[in-house]
């Protein structure tokens, strides 16, 4: 009986040692943990960018109506139609010049004072555009690009220090420009096909036929003080989207810098788990198992055959879903 008891004690000790075996962290597991913390901090401030985009969208729709009123006041539709008929009759060189544009300048005469105290007449000028610049595009489509594994924050990570540009910077820039459509020329899309790139969608979202050349600054439309102030607010709403992007990135990156330093010193999952519990980040051992078995799960014969046949590039979320499904099947 004593021998049997000792054997049972020995087995129990082994079981407890197995259960208490600590998960050792490696680079892959640290990245999984860091991603959980980043998602936590992103969620805390993501509404700032969402609200900025919503305000811009509302202002944009109003601005479309206002700019059409301004342009048609200075260039009535009947004048545009007359020039178009002249072009059809005499050709573009002799009939006049029309250009369909989404870029406009509005101005208002104001008085200024020079260094010697003399007044002089000048223009208060605002550049109004309905297409999409690169920085604005990276801010507006940040969430969509991050969901696809792209890095729309690459330009913010160097903090205007261009000496920090490295191969990864250029790789991120290229991938983002390709997604947004800035890497593609108009010749890449046929006249009959409609491009789905965000840049092209915005380019054709709103345009007005204007009398004059394609040079935007050559067409300046005078407006009153209230109208000028409205367009100033519209332009500010676009700047606020870029500003919100910068603020979200700065907040999250500041937190992540401190976290990465701490994770480097951690050796076990339990240390990271204690930190996560104190901060409020959801973290459990199953996430570590997902990361370690991810490659085997994704490239199992069944999944690899599917990828090769359909030529589908899985997102990170899809890969995790596949891994979880295979883990459940192995348990069952």
Notes on the protein architecture:
The chain is mainly α and 332 residues long. Among the domains are: 42-130 and 206-265, no CATH class; 133-188, no CATH class. It is built from 14 helices and 5 strands. It has a 3-stranded mixed β-sheet with strand order 3-2-5. Strands 1-4 form a two-stranded antiparallel sheet. Helix 2 (27-74) packs antiparallel against helix 10 (225-265), helix 2 packs across helix 12 and helix 12 (285-298) packs across helix 14. 17% of the residues are buried.
Strand content: 5-15%
Q: List the uncertain runs.
A: 294-299
Q: Measured on Cα atoms, how large is the radius of gyration? A: 30 Å
Number of helical segments?
14
| Cα-to-Cα separation, first versus last residue | 37 Å
Instruction: Compute the number of strand runs.
Output: 5
Overall body shape: elongated
Derived from helix and strand composition plus strand pairing, the structural class reads: mainly alpha
Tell me the major beta sheet: 3 strands, mixed
Average pLDDT, all residues: 83
Helix-strand sequence: HHHHEEEHHHHHEEHHHHH
Helix content: 55-70%
Write a concise synopsis of the structure shown.
This protein has helices at about 1-20, 25-75, 75-90, 90-95, 135-140, 140-145, 155, 165-180, 200-205, 225-265, 270-280, 285-300, 300-310, 315-330, and strands spanning about 100, 105-115, 120-130, 210, 220.
């Amino acid at each position: 009986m004593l021998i049997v008891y000792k054997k049972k004690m020995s087995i129990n000790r082994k079981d407890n040692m197995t259960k208490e075996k600590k998960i050792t962290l490696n680079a892959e597991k640290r990245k999984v943990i860091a991603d959980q913390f980043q998602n936590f901090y992103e969620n805390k401030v993501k509404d700032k960018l969402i609200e900025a985009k919503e305000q811009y969208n509302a202002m944009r729709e109003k601005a479309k109506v206002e700019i059409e009123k301004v342009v048609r006041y200075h260039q009535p539709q009947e004048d545009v139609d007359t020039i178009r008929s002249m072009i059809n009759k005499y050709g573009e060189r002799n009939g006049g010049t029309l250009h369909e544009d989404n870029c406009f300048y509005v101005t208002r005469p104001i008085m200024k004072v020079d260094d010697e105290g003399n007044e002089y007449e000048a223009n208060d000028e605002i550049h109004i555009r309905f297409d999409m610049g690169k920085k604005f595009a990276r801010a507006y489509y940040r969430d969509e690009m991050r969901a696809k594994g792209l890095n729309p924050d690459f330009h913010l990570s160097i903090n205007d220090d261009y000496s920090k540009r490295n191969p990864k910077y250029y790789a991120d820039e290229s991938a983002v420009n390709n997604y947004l459509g800035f890497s593609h020329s108009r010749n890449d899309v046929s006249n009959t096909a409609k491009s789905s790139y965000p840049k092209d969608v915005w380019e054709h979202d709103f345009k007005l036929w204007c009398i004059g050349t394609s040079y935007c600054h050559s067409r300046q439309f005078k407006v009153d003080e209230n109208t000028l102030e409205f367009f100033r607010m519209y332009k500010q709403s676009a700047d606020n989207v870029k500003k919100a992007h910068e603020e979200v990135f700065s907040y999250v990156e500041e937190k992540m810098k401190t976290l990465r330093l701490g994770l480097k010193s951690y050796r076990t999952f339990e240390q990271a788990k204690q930190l996560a519990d104190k901060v409020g980040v959801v973290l459990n051992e199953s996430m570590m198992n997902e990361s370690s078995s991810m490659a085997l799960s994704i490239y199992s014969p069944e999944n690899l055959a599917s990828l090769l046949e359909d030529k589908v590039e899985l997102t990170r979320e899809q890969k995790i879903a596949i891994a979880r499904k295979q883990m459940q099947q192995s348990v069952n």
